[in-house]
Design goal:
Helices cover 18% and strands 30% of the residues. The protein is of the alpha/beta class. The protein has a seven-stranded mixed beta sheet with strand order 5-4-1-6-11-8-12, sandwiched between helices. The chain has a six-stranded parallel beta sheet with strand order 14-17-20-23-26-29, with helices on one face.
Length: 346
Amino acid sequence: MKAMILAGGLSTRLYPLTKRVPKPLVPVAGEPNAAHVIRYLASYGICEIAINVHYHAEAVVDALGDGSRFGVHLEYLHEPVLMGSAGAVKQMERFLSDGTFAVVGCDDLTDLPLDRMLAFHRERGALATIAVVERDDVRHYGVVVCDTDGKIVGFQEKPDPGTERSRLVNTGIYLFEPAMLRRIPEGVFHDFGSQAFPALQAEGAPFYAFVARDAYWCDIGTPSEYRRASRDVLEGRVRLPGVRPTGCDSDVELADDVQIDGAVRVCAGARVETGARLVGPTVIGDHAVVEDGARIEGSIVWSHARIGRGAVLRDVIVGAGYAVPAGAVLEGAIVAEEDPEPAPAP
């Protein structure tokens, strides 16, 4: 089986963090989430993977390469103009058309059992299957309504409390048969959620929802969910293939009197200077510097950032390469270098 990772969006919900860093490279536990998705797919034997790139495409290609370090082959789709989720998949028709294939978003963090989903998909003779999870509060999600056999009978987009017809939400993890590709128009913008899926449901196609009741899933595309995902990885609520959730890499420079309490990850090439204190759940990214006497609690520091002498950070996200001034006190903040805003995609 092959797969495609959807990675072309701008991730505006994470601005200003993603003005310099493209969505696929947003780090979770110090590593790009796209890398976690690739390893997730590889753990199910999926070694031929397409990925679309758009904003800072060259940075994505440089970071992920040809996929060989993950044991897979990556096929890139460079989109000068974004054509929507279904439109991107359509452009990879030749690559994907030789059997059942998976589609996963680059902002999905999950341990969802893809093998069980595939068995469900095949047992029902499905053309398309959406993985769904239960949420108590569904007002920020696309809601999926299905019958007792899992056949999809309706959708709701971000329903107001009390109006929801279901508590099952779309994870953005899909399985398709090649015939699905022929239903997507060529050369025009086409979206799964707003166009392709409602059309399937309206015509009564074999279109199903796989309910992953015990699975972990988080869409890291908002600050609150991104924080949750980082915390959940560090504290062991989800285990990711090939990921070291806590501890220090071998080349970390750590002063003898640094205090580390709780679930903390310090990544390659980072330096933590004398008198600093790190309190979990906290991540210090690659080649970041924490200067003398700084205190960092429950925060995420991206690569090459610098935390100034004596600074105090609580529940803060520090973007790549950002310098927090000496003595600064930040709480609940997001700080990042801000390049000029890119033009919105169509």
